[in-house]
Each structure stands twice: as C-alpha cells, then as structure tokens.
Design goal:
222 residues, alpha+beta, Ribosomal Protein L25, Chain P, 2 domains, six-stranded mixed sheet, 4 helices
Length: 222
C-alpha cells in the first residue's frame, strides 16, 4: 500500500458570503473547507486547475499544509455545476494514519479473459469503484482483479474478494465482473402477411367470378 506523497496546493481563504464566493469562482478558484475532529472548520481555496489535476492523480489520501503544519486529508465531498460539471466546492476531512476511514478506491481489471479472446464473449464491469473501510495507513491506490482465466458464464462478486487489511462495504452479492455470451445478430425476415391477404382476396374474387359464371349458365339453360 503506497503512502501518497501528493500535496494539495491549498491557499488561505478570507472570502465569504454569496457574492464573494461567486467572484472567487469567476476568478478561477474553488472554495474548499477542511474539517478535522476536534477543531473548527478551516476555509481554504484551490485553483480550478489544481483541483482538476488532483482529481486526475488517482490519489485517495493527500498531504496538505495548514498553518505551517503538515496534515493528511481525504476528499470527502465535491459539488459540481449541474450543467458544466465544473467543480463548485470541495470538502476535505483530516485523517491520521491510525484512523479508520471509509473511502472509495478504483477497481482495476488486469488481463484479457479467455471467454473474450477465444470464445467471443463480452466483458461487463458493473462497478468501477469500491467503498472500503481500513486504517488510513492501509488505503490502497486501487484494487486489482486478474480476469485472464474467466470464461463465458463466469462472474466475480464482492464476496470473492478477501483482504486482511480492508473490508468492502458493498453487498457481498454485488457482481463486479462477468463474461457474457456474444450477442446474436437478429436478421429481419420479410413479412408476407399482406401478400397472403391479397392472395386470399384474389382467390375469393376468382371464386366469385366462377359462381357468377355458373349462375349465368343456369339461366341460359332455363
């Protein structure tokens, strides 16, 4: 388990109130609040570019400096703009390495399944992140699954993952990875019902004509 060294580039924030926060965002900043057990919330800010870089880093626990003291924090909540998806606000929670934390980590697959490579199956990954509980010092960068031996019909569930240092909080029955059979292409066949109906109408017309001829013949004989 790698202990992250990624440091968030945070700055003190004196701006407060709706108007000031709006201007702050317009100037390229994201308002941030740092929470830690037993201490008051600390208002901070980060540039939008630094927030985006931090989120792309894939790290889960970050180093930060507050009042000259190095702390560790996790991103607890992010608010996004409903239309542009731009980050509007972020909450950081301080953690100690001995603390028990609940945190989401990426689920990474390794290898190409036999069922895909040799049998033409389709790999379905239903979950891309797992929520785990563990010590702050044991947070993994990701959880890796080797799927190379999976065949069509095989599946991996939460219950199939075991660890002595972390616990997955999702239900044990949740399917993570499955190999589905190839989808069959449906070939449309022409519908002949209309032609059949027309044929029946044609036959009825012919029968009617024959009946008419028979009636005329009877009259002539009479």
């Amino acid at each position: 388990m790698a202990e992250t060294r990624y440091e968030l580039k945070i700055h003190e924030r004196i701006e407060n109130g709706k108007t000031a926060i709006k201007k702050l965002r317009a100037d390229g900043w994201v308002p941030v609040v740092f929470y830690s057990h037993g201490t008051d919330a600390v208002p901070l800010k980060m540039s939008y570019a630094d927030v985006r870089e931090a989120l792309r880093s894939g790290e889960r626990i970050f180093n930060i400096h507050i009042n000259g003291e190095q702390r560790r924090a996790v991103i607890k909540e992010i608010q996004y703009h409903p239309v542009t998806d731009k980050v509007l606000h972020m909450d950081l929670h301080g953690v100690r390495l001995r603390d028990i934390v609940e945190i989401e980590v990426p689920l990474i697959i390794k290898g190409t399944p036999t069922g895909v490579k040799d049998e033409g199956g389709v790999l379905q990954q239903t979950i891309h992140e797992l929520t785990i509980r563990c010590k702050g010092s044991d947070v993994p960068d990701h959880i890796e699954l080797d799927v190379a031996d999976m065949k069509i019909g095989d599946a991996i569930h939460v219950r199939d993952l075991e660890s002595d240092i972390w616990t997955i909080l999702e239900s044990s029955d949740v399917t993570l990875i499955s190999i589905q059979p190839p989808q069959k292409m449906e070939i449309e066949t022409p519908v002949l019902e209309e032609e059949g109906e027309e044929g029946e109408e044609g036959e009825e017309a012919e029968e009617g004509a024959e009946e008419g001829e028979d009636e005329e013949s009877d009259k002539d004989e009479a």
